[in-house]
Design brief:
heterodimer; A: 188 residues; mainly alpha; 2 domains; 0% strand; elongated; B: 226 residues; 4-stranded antiparallel beta sheet; 7 helices; 10 strands; 26% strand; transport (chain B); transmembrane transporter activity (chain B); ABC_transpr_LolD-like (chain B)
Chain lengths: 188, 226
């Protein structure tokens, strides 16, 4: 017997060898091929959709930072006059944007993990607050929402979120660093 | 001893080669010796700010040389000009341009931190400078909580925080009433005389200009004695 049904392919060669050459092995994965493939596609599409959401959230960091750079034009000019290099100004604004992205990622991971771990009590709470009937088990025959926390998924979400939020921060930070101090002070 | 600031044949034209070209500086020759306070007078739009920006390595001339402490800074990279500006030049503008989120003390400490000075040492120097111009008791106040004269005195302290060799001031009292202007100018002179640095101060105020060591006039793109 297998401990993990997903490892079914591992015992197929041994069964074939034991049963002889005229044997055909037909596993549960073969009989549910279309269903498993649909689940994989759904998993991938869900990741793409969530990536787009993270990208949209990153755009908020960009727009916020661009407004910050515009509002702080005079201050940037003064800092450059004082002798801060382009690199130093870039680091200031990069740290500003990257810290927003990092804090957002940490909060997102904590909330996401908590949601996946305590999905049943959360579901029960929502059901209670809405007066019941949110999910009628008699219709679908599903009595609990299965949620499995995969550390691989958490790692991909964290990597994507940090990567996007840090990369998008570079553009407004570079714009701040390239600002001409004379122009910045002249029009203030 | 070499001059702290020397400009030789400096020219600067905005929008060169276009019908809207404006020739602001036409071969400026100028020298400021260590410890000397020089007034630069000219009407608005004559190019005082441009001259100060070129002298302070914020802008590059089209032709000519800018020497600070005998070193030609004209064709240095942006990074090296920034370093030279940080170590050798202090700026004061007509408006104080203090960072509003920081206290007066932090505004004076900031350029020193950028220079790599330890915080305790930077704070001690900042408080000493602020003491000399009478704003030490306002150290923990933000710029919005200071009067115009106090803001400008803090700006002087910030300009001198890194012990520069040259002070460039663009209408430093132009935004103040005559009485406050006199007091603030006195504070500036206390700082300049006590530190022995060279100063080039652009001003409209001929009475203030007369109190400086030498008065120069920017006339049609040339600097001439007034």
């Amino acid at each position: 017997m297998l401990d993990d049904p997903d490892d079914v392919e591992a015992i197929v060669p041994a069964i074939l060898q034991a049963a002889g050459p005229m044997t055909l092995a037909w596993t549960w994965k073969d009989s549910s091929g279309a269903f498993l493939s649909a689940l994989t596609v759904e998993d991938n599409v869900m990741f793409v959709i969530l990536s787009v959401l993270v990208l949209i959230a990153s755009m908020n960091i960009i727009s916020g930072l661009i407004m910050l750079v515009k509002n702080k034009g005079r201050d940037i000019g003064i800092l450059r006059t004082m002798g801060l290099t382009e690199g130093a100004v870039l680091r200031v604004f990069f740290l500003c944007g990257a810290s927003i992205g990092t804090i957002g990622t940490i909060l997102g991971v904590l909330l996401g993990c908590a949601f996946a771990i305590w999905i049943d009590p959360i579901f029960a709470a929502v059901n209670y607050l809405s007066g019941g009937g949110v999910w009628d088990p008699s219709i679908r025959g599903i009595y609990r929402l299965p949620a499995k926390l995969e550390w691989g998924d958490v790692l991909s979400a964290v990597s994507l979120s940090l990567f996007l939020s840090w990369v998008v921060t570079l553009f407004p930070a570079r714009r701040a660093a390239r600002m001409n101090p004379v122009e910045a002070l002249r029009y203030e | 001893m070499s001059d702290t600031l020397r400009l030789s044949g400096v020219t600067k034209t905005y929008n060169p080669g276009k019908p809207t070209a404006v020739e602001v500086l036409r071969g400026v020759d100028l020298a400021v010796a260590p410890g000397e306070v020089v007034a630069l007078v000219a009407p608005s739009g004559a190019g005082k700010s441009t001259l100060l920006h070129v002298a302070g390595l914020l802008d590059t001339p089209d032709a000519g040389q800018v020497l600070l402490d005998g070193t030609d800074m004209t064709r240095l990279s942006d990074r090296r000009r920034t370093m030279a500006r940080r170590d050798l030049v202090g700026f004061v503008y007509q408006f104080h341009h203090l960072l509003p989120e920081f206290t007066a003390l932090e505004n004076v400490v900031l350029p020193q931190l950028a220079h790599g000075t330890p915080r305790a040492q930077a704070e001690a120097r900042a408080l000493d400078l602020m003491d000399r111009v009478g704003v030490r008791n306002r150290a923990t106040h933000r710029p919005a909580e200071l009067s115009g004269g106090e803001q400008q005195r803090v700006a002087f302290c910030r300009a001198l925080a890194n012990a520069p060799r040259l002070l460039l001031a663009d209408e430093p009292t132009g935004n103040l009433d005559p009485a406050t202007s006199d007091r603030v100018f006195d504070a500036l002179m206390v700082l300049v005389r006590s530190t022995g640095l060279a100063a080039l101060i652009a001003t409209h105020n001929l009475q203030l200009a007369a109190r400086m060591d030498r008065v120069l006039r920017l006339d049609a793109g040339h600097v001439v004695p007034a």
